[in-house]
Design brief:
The chain is mainly alpha-helical. The chain is built from 5 helices and no strands. The longest helix has 21 residues.
């Protein structure tokens, strides 16, 4: 189990680094560490067969949320061009995530 978590952490770090680097935002105040923490948490909560479970999908969506919350993302088109997600994927994930939060944190 610990081996799998370490593999997930390494894979997530690589994907986050690649993604933020392609947005030229790799040097923002610990963004990679904060996003990694959120990716590990959310990844553990997503069901196994979900379209959002792969890191190639999850990292861009959570990075988008982080960057928007910190008012750092100025071009949504840039985010979509460097990832495999579509705008509808991002919106659907956010809706499902809000539903999850409201159900589990009432």
């Amino acid at each position: 189990m610990k081996k799998e978590k370490n593999k997930l952490v390494r894979s997530a770090e690589t994907e986050i680094s690649r993604f933020l680097g392609s947005l030229y935002m790799s040097s923002y105040n610990n963004a990679d560490a904060i996003i990694l923490e959120k990716v590990i948490f959310v990844h553990s909560k997503i069901r196994k067969n979900s379209a959002y479970k792969p890191l190639e999908t999850l990292v861009p969506i959570l990075s988008y949320i982080f960057l928007r919350l910190h008012d750092l993302l100025y071009k949504k088109s840039k985010l979509l061009s460097v990832s495999i997600i579509y705008l509808a994927d991002k919106n659907n994930f956010i809706i499902q995530f809000i539903h999850y939060l409201s159900k589990n944190y009432e």
